[in-house]
Amino acid sequence: MTPRSLLALPLGSALLAASLAAVPTSAAPAVAPAAAAKVTVTDGCLKSAPETKGGTPVKICYSIFRPAGATAAKRVPMVMHSHGWGGSRTTDAAEFTELTSAGYGVLSFDQRGWGESGGKAHVENPAYEGRDVRALVALISRLTWVQQDAKGDPRLGAIGGSYGGGYQFVGAFEELRVKGKPVFDALAPEITWHDLSQSLAPEGVVRTEWALALSAASVPAQALPNNIYKALVEGSATGQWPDGSTPGSENLVKFFEKNGPKWHVDHGRKLDIPVLFGQGTTDSLFPLQQGLANWQKAITKRARKQSMFIGYNGGHVLPSVLPQGVNVTSDPCSKRLAGGDFRDLTVKFFDANLKREPIEMRGLGKIHLATPTSTCTTVSSVAPNTTYAVGTVATTAGPAGAPVPYPVVEGPIRIAGSPYLTGSVTALGTDNRAFYGLAIGTTPLDAHLIQNNVLPIREVDPVTGVVRRIVLPSVAVNVPAGQTLYLIASPVSDTFATMGSRTPGAVVIDDTVVSLPVVGR
């Protein structure tokens, strides 16, 4: 499926198809009806923050799954769940069999603007979705069969991917901001973001396909505020991320400012609870470095010792053709640590942190990353530790220019983490752009991106010999003997379709040095 055909899907399913098809843990196993029948399901709605000051409260709808045997005398922990962008809550008890059969209650809810809930999607804004999650936590604290640690403080975990990971962070950070503690006892967010603006438009260069998909998925439910929908479409069409600098234009930077962990971290808040991070190594919307930023910045050092980071092959995936990428779906790290997939690891993680059972959790305090060949590499740090001089790196000129691979180092070598390059940049046009990533191949002719991602440089004004530090996509790869690690320099990227240079011209980097996180150095 090409990016263009993806966007031609029915509007409400476009992003879901891209998000879920390549997530190794998205499919629930078949469950006999009798097993699901033991769970009591209760549907309801509560009233939450109005869309405007003094307006009508917005209803937020939910389904509660009470496991067999849960009573006031035998209370159980609760796990919250919510959906991805364009989705709705889960109402089938069979979908949560791993949790309910393990003795957990589950509450799944429609986020604001989606499903049966009212209002508009403010994309995990603390003043809206944050208050919705807090209202749901208050509801859970009044359930007589849910374990309580204190008044208004239920024993609570959370699951969900993409937008369903975003609610976990806004909820936990808002509880921390308001009450001084996160209330949630453990989180398991998957394929979600740290900084939404940098995810959708790194360096102000719009991820065209994803901005359009987010917009399109919101149309059937009219979930987005109309001005924000128009701004996303405008950004995709013009190649300029709307920042309010043009009179009469929207300011997406301002709209998304508070909508992620970065805002809370910038205001001195960190979560001091265990977190099981799941992130797609081939994800091109919320790429690996977004999850790693949450690992490094959103939780405390003490919490990291009781947490773990799992990178699997999957996530929000669009075919990467120019430059050529990979198409792999696998989760070798969860298999190694839990004998199954990320869902199995999540139940074990909750058993240790919600039930507080004395079970051995392997891999705590570490980062575990899948490679394209479905091996698992474990590291304590993703920081580069080795440099390689590459010389002059230049893109071909023009919108039809081909990617150019430059050799960095021959195999065997193993890398895992967050590389970058430095060099002296010359770009003589106006608003010149180029895209960079790491690739592997036996020759330049068969070199392909390691994990589907490139990141841009943008020079708004002409520059000559200006020293820059350019972030490269975070990766994990084993480069065997006989193959070479390459730096790809490209004037175009299909993920950033039509986002190349505004005026023709090559981007040249002299004295290029690539810094790599080499494992086993």
Automatic annotation (TrEMBL):
GO molecular function: hydrolase activity
Record keyword Signal present: yes
Segments forming domain Xaa-Pro dipeptidyl-peptidase-like: 58-311
Keyword Signal: yes
SUPFAM superfamilies in alphabetical order: alpha/beta-Hydrolases
Residues spanning the signal sequence: 1-27
Top-rank taxon, per record: Bacteria
Keywords for the protein's UniProt record, in alphabetical order: Signal
InterPro entries reported in the protein's UniProt record: AB_hydrolase_fold, FrsA_esterase, Xaa-Pro-like_dom
PANTHER family noted in UniProt: DIENELACTONE HYDROLASE DOMAIN-CONTAINING PROTEIN-RELATED (PTHR22946)
Protein family membership: Belongs to the AB hydrolase superfamily.
Protein name as annotated: X-Pro dipeptidyl-peptidase (S15 family)
Natural source organism: Nocardioides szechwanensis
